[in-house]
Amino acid sequence: MKIIIAGAYAIGTHLAKLLSRSNHDTVLIDESEARLADISGDYDLMTYLASPASFKTLKETGAHGADLFIAVTPDQHLNMTSCMMAHSMGAKKTVARIDDNDFMEEKNIEFFRGMGIDSLIYPENLAATEICNGLKMSWVRQRWDVHNSSLVMLGIKMRDTAEILNQPLKELSKPETPYYVVAIKRGEDTIIPRGDDVLKLNDMVFFMTKRDTISYVRKIVGKEHYIDVKNVMVMGGGMTAVRAMAKLPEYMNAKIIEMNEARCEELNELIDNKRVMVINGDGRDLSLLRDEGIGNTQAFVALTNNAETNILACLTAKRMGVRKTVAIVENMDYVKIAESLDIGTIVNKKALAASRIYQIMLDEDVSVSNVKFFTTANADVAEFTAQQGSKVTRKRVFELGLPEGTAIGGLVRNGVGKLVSGGTQIEAGDVVVMFCHNINMAKLEKFFKC
C-alpha cells in the first residue's frame, strides 16, 4: 500500500512504528526538519520537509496514487484541509485527527465524507472509551471484546492469590478448560507461552475466554474479593474527563476534582449527568481527598496533562486504599515507568489514535479486521477470516507452522465463540483471533487467503 502521513508528532511517529513492521510504501510529511530527523533513521519510510496543505507537496509525495492519506498534526483545520486536497488529487481514503466532538455526530461525519474526509479520529473519545471499559471490571487491567463479545480477551496482573501460579500450562489446560493463555508479559519480555511455561507472580497474563466464563477466570486468578466500581474520583477536568463522563456506566457515580475555578463552571455546563459532581480543588491535597470520600471510592482516574502528576496521584490513591487506578500517560517514555510502578490501567491517547488508524488501514484487507494494538505487550490482536481453500483450513492448528511470535486465541463460527486447541480444524468462514507479538501481519495473511 502507498501511505502518506502528515505530521511527525506523537501519533504520526507511533503510527510509523506500527507500519514499519509491514512492507508499505510510506511517506512522512512535516514542516520541522528536527522532527523528521528524529524518526527517519529508525523506520523504513521516506520523509518530506514541507507543509501538507500544499498542492506541490501532495503532488511530489504521490497523493494521486495513495491508498491512504493520514493527517495527524495538532491542527485539526490543517488536517482536514490537507485531507480534502489529497482526496481531490486522487487519494483513495483519507483520515483526519480532530479536536471537536461535534464533528463526530453522524450528520457531520456524513458531511465530511462528502468533502473527501473518510474517517475522523478524536483521541479524547478513544481515551474515554478505554477508561470506561477499564472501570467496568476493577480486577482487569485490559479488556477487549472480540466479534460482538463472542470471545473476550482479558489482561490480568497475577497476584499471590492466584491459584494457577507456578504450574506448567500443559497441566492446567484440559479439554474442558474455559480459557486459553495467549501471552505473558514478564518484565520487559512478551512471551508466547508453550506447555512447559508457568505463570509467575506479577506477570501480566492475557487470557482468551468466553463471556459466560469470565467469572471462572476471575476465580482462578484470585480476584473475587475485588469490589466492583461504583464510586469514581477523577483528577483533572479536561476534555477527556468530559467525554469519559458522557460514557460513564449508569451504575457509577463520579467526582471530578479540578483546580481552575472557571473550568469548574464550564464543566458544570458541559457535563449533563446528575451522577457527576464537580469540585474545585487540588487532587493532590490528601485532606481534600479524604473529605471527599476517597475511603469509599473504588477507582481513581488521573487525567491531568502531566504524566508525572498522574502517576504520583495514582500511587497516592493506592496507598489510601483505592484498588483500581487509571492514569493518562502521554509521554511514551513514562509508560514503562508507570507499568513498573504497578499503576494499573495506563491510557495513552496517541497510541490509541495510531492503533485506530492502523485498523482503518488493515480494514482495506478483507481477510483481517478489528485490530487492537496492546502497547504494554508490543502486540496486535486481530480477527482473520479464513477463506475457502486457504492454508488454515487444510491442516489442524498444530500442523500449520504458524510464525514464531503468534498464537491463536480462539475462533468464532456461525456467531459462536470457541476456544482452540492444537487439534482444532479451522473451517472456511471462521473468524480466527490471532495474538501477534512484534511480527509483520503480512506473514499471517497468507495463511488465511486462498
Automatic annotation (TrEMBL):
GO terms for cellular component: plasma membrane. Transmembrane segments: none annotated. Residues 141-223, 369-450 form the RCK C-terminal domain. The lineage of its organism: Bacteria, Pseudomonadati, Bacteroidota, Bacteroidia, Bacteroidales. It comes from Prevotella koreensis. This is Trk system potassium uptake protein TrkA. One of its GO terms (molecular function) is potassium ion transmembrane transporter activity. InterPro entries: K_uptake_TrkA (IPR006036), NAD(P)-bd_dom_sf (IPR036291), RCK_C (IPR006037), RCK_C_sf (IPR036721), RCK_N (IPR003148), Trk_Ktr_HKT_K-transport (IPR050721). It holds the Pfam family TrkA_N. Residues 1-121, 229-347 form the RCK N-terminal domain. Keywords: Ion transport, NAD, Potassium, Potassium transport, Transport.
